């Protein structure tokens, strides 16, 4: 079992090997969610994830034992942490990744000198293949979460957070296999026994919630938080979580999308879905955390650019800053010019224009003009629609 001495030993070992990341208050997020929010910027690590901590701690152990090569399975962040520190320590690294892994994570892992094998559609399939390769090629298997040295390395985050903000009331931590929250819980309980520790899983991958709480929530197939898309929780991590963690909560995909966008807009920091799960919990359950001093771990920043673009666009649409409207008009010369002039006078920008003549219930002399607009928000969108109606057009928002 992992104890505070293991974590303090890991902290000494990691000095100078990883970045001691900032842990600072976000006044704007605090105002929005009604709690005092402190952010631990683990997305600033060299490989853009907290996973470096456990990987470095474990690999130093293996080096001291005479190991020459390692193998790991990972959706990306553990892979990069193992690859980076294996390269630093002169070890061969072979990484097995599921086929759905974002390309940015695959390329960065290769960039750290690791050999990458893509296998299976889930972490469980990748793990089974990695264990086969480990036995065949004589490599030491580095588990992403169910390992005492990995857990101890991740626990160093809690030591740093409590050094920076000793009077934290609550830690809110994303949960996949459980290595991060298990290590942090052991460290935080030793340093501050009364602190509240809350784990967060995506509703699409509730494996740890089911294991610890005895629930039977259905398992999904995909999530934007692929870093915590774990189908089988760790045995060691589950035992620690059941004993040390106060509660586990679930968040939806929309909550995570909103959290990613808020961190980008407000904090100007790029966080992947799994790294935004803690803030997603504060968005979804504001009353549960109201008035508390809450520490969140921004656990990683490795997000696929195309996914980020989709999250930004969907977030703008939800906020009414990107809207699709339908304007019905007489199909005569000058109608489109009048519509666009009215939109311009109302201060909105036109992204797309589409004339719809065939697929409409209007009479043959009329036309539907579909516009995608950039606005300042819901109130401004309403004002644009009012201006169009005042100009004699039928105008409605399209959902």
Shape: elongated
Give the low-pLDDT segments.
none
In whole angstroms, the N-to-C terminal distance is: 53 Å
Q: What's the Cα radius of gyration?
A: 25 Å
Main sheet: strands, sense, barrel: 6 strands, mixed
Number of DSSP strand runs: 14
- Reading off the top of the CATH hierarchy, the class of the largest domain is best stated as Alpha Beta
Output the helix-strand order.
HEHEHEHEHEHEHEHEHHEHHHEHEHEEHE
What share of residues are in beta strands? 15-25%
Number of helices: 16
| CATH overall fold name of the largest domain | Rossmann fold
The structure class reads alpha/beta
Note the topology.
Layout: H1 4-14, E1 23-25, H2 27-33, E2 36-40, H3 51-64, E3 69-73, H4 77-89, E4 92-97, H5 103-111, E5 115-118, H6 123-137, E6 140-141, H7 148-164, E7 170-174, H8 179-191, E8 196-202, H9 207-213, H10 235-244, E9 247-251, H11 253-266, H12 277-284, H13 286-289, E10 293-297, H14 305-318, E11 322-330, H15 335-345, E12 349-356, E13 366-374, H16 378-390, E14 394-398
Parallel strand pairs: 2-10, 3-4, 3-6, 4-5, 7-8, 7-10, 8-9
Antiparallel strand pairs: 1-2, 11-13, 11-14, 12-13
Attribute tags:
399 residues, alpha/beta, Rossmann fold, Alpha-Beta Plaits, six-stranded mixed β-sheet, four-stranded parallel β-sheet, 16 helices, 20% strand, elongated
What does this structure look like?
By secondary structure, the chain is α/β, with parallel strands linked by helices. The chain is built from 16 helices and 14 strands. It has helices spanning 4-14, 27-33, 51-64, 77-89, 103-111, 123-137, 148-164, 179-191, 207-213, 235-244, 253-266, 277-284, 286-289, 305-318, 335-345, 378-390; strands spanning 23-25, 36-40, 69-73, 92-97, 115-118, 140-141, 170-174, 196-202, 247-251, 293-297, 322-330, 349-356, 366-374, 394-398. The protein has a 6-stranded mixed sheet with strand order 1-2-10-7-8-9, with helices on both faces. It has a 4-stranded parallel sheet with strand order 5-4-3-6, with helices on both faces. It has a 4-stranded antiparallel sheet with strand order 12-13-11-14.
């Amino acid at each position: 079992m992992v104890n505070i001495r293991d974590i303090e030993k890991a902290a000494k070992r990691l000095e100078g090997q990883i970045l001691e990341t900032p842990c600072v208050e976000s006044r704007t997020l605090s105002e929005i969610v009604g709690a005092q929010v402190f952010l631990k910027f683990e997305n600033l690590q060299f490989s853009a994830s907290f996973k470096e901590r456990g990987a470095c701690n474990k690999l130093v152990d293996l080096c001291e034992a005479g190991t020459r090569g390692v193998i790991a399975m990972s959706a990306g962040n553990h892979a990069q942490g193992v690859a980076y520190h294996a390269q630093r320590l002169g070890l061969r690294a072979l990484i097995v990744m599921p086929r759905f892994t974002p390309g940015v994570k695959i390329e960065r892992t290769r960039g750290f000198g690791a050999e990458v094998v893509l296998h299976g559609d889930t972490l469980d399939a990748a793990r089974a293949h990695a264990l086969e390769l480990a036995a065949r090629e004589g490599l030491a298997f580095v588990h992403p979460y169910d390992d005492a040295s990995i857990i101890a390395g991740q626990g160093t985050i809690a030591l740093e957070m409590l050094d920076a903000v000793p009077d934290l009331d609550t830690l809110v931590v994303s949960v996949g296999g459980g290595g991060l929250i298990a290590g942090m819980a052991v460290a935080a309980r030793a340093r501050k026994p009364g602190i509240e520790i809350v784990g967060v899983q995506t509703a699409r991958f509730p494996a740890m919630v089911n294991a610890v709480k005895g629930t039977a929530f259905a398992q999904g197939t995909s999530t934007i938080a692929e870093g915590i898309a774990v189908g089988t929780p760790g045995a060691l991590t589950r035992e620690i979580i059941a004993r040390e963690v106060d509660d586990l909560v679930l968040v939806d995909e929309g909550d995570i999308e909103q959290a990613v966008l808020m961190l980008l807009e407000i904090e100007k920091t790029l966080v992947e879905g799994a790294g935004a799960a803690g803030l997603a919990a504060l968005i979804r359950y504001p009353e549960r955390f109201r008035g508390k001093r809450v520490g969140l771990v921004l656990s990683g920043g490795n997000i696929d650019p195309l996914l980020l673009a989709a999250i930004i666009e969907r977030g703008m649409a939800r906020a009414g800053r990107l809207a699709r409207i339908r304007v019905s008009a007489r199909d005569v010369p000058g109608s489109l010019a009048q519509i666009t002039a009215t939109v311009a006078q109302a201060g909105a920008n036109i992204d797309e224009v589409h004339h719809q003549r065939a697929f409409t219930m209007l009479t043959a002399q009329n036309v539907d003009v579909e516009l995608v607009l950039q606005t300042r928000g819901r109130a401004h969108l309403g004002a644009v629609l009012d201006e169009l109606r005042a100009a004699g057009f039928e105008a409605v928002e399209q959902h």
